[in-house]
Amino acid sequence: YAALVPSSQPFPTGTINRKLYGALRVVDYPQWGSKVSDLMTQSCDASMKVSTSYNETTREISATVKTTFLHALSGDYALAIYYTEDSIVNWQAFPTTAGGNVADYVHRHVLRGALTPSFGTVIATNPSVAQQEIRSITGTPIAADINTDHVHVVAVLTNTATKEIVQVEEVELK
Fold it and tell me: Do 155 and 99 touch, CB atoms closer than 8 A?
């Protein structure tokens, strides 16, 4: 995977489904709304249903993802499953604040780990209309400092050739 944001790119920027816009995947902040609006008018290529469980004793997260392809597609499609933690109160640098930082900043949607390799594993090649793929995965034990009451599981389906995100589904762990 090439760098998503070239070092010469101004900020704030972001990627929208890792889609290419010209030669770049990054979009300047003023264009985010129109690019997202354009994507919202397109039909989805897949749907996903995610169910989770958590073992309090072993601290293992399990997820089952049912992916249904809504169109015939070509190429390989990979599923990645991540978990995030929300509402982490901790220090954050703030140059515009007196003293330069905030001790009790509330961090949102912090990536804490993955149940799969970073860019997922291939679940379908040249999927057909209505093809369903079901994957159940249990991750390694999560860190003791993670508050599972604030954990979300995020499933991401990508086209492995283009790196574009096809579908995402997020659910609360508990």
Answer: no
CA pseudo-torsion sign 158, 65, 74, 44: negative
**Dihedral sign from CA coordinates of 162, 21, 24, 22:** positive
Sort strands 151-159 and 76-85 into parallel, antiparallel or unpaired.
antiparallel
The total number of residues written for the chain in this structure = 174
Radius of gyration of the chain (CA): 18
CA–CA separation, 44 and 122 (whole Å): 19
Please name the helix (run of DSSP H) or strand (run of DSSP E) that holds residue 84, with its range, or none. Answer: strand 76-85
Tokens of 66: 């049912």
| Whole-angstrom distance, CA of residue 121 vs CA of residue 144 | 27
Instruction: Give the model confidence (pLDDT) of 120-138 as tens digits.
Output: 999 999 999 999 999 999 9
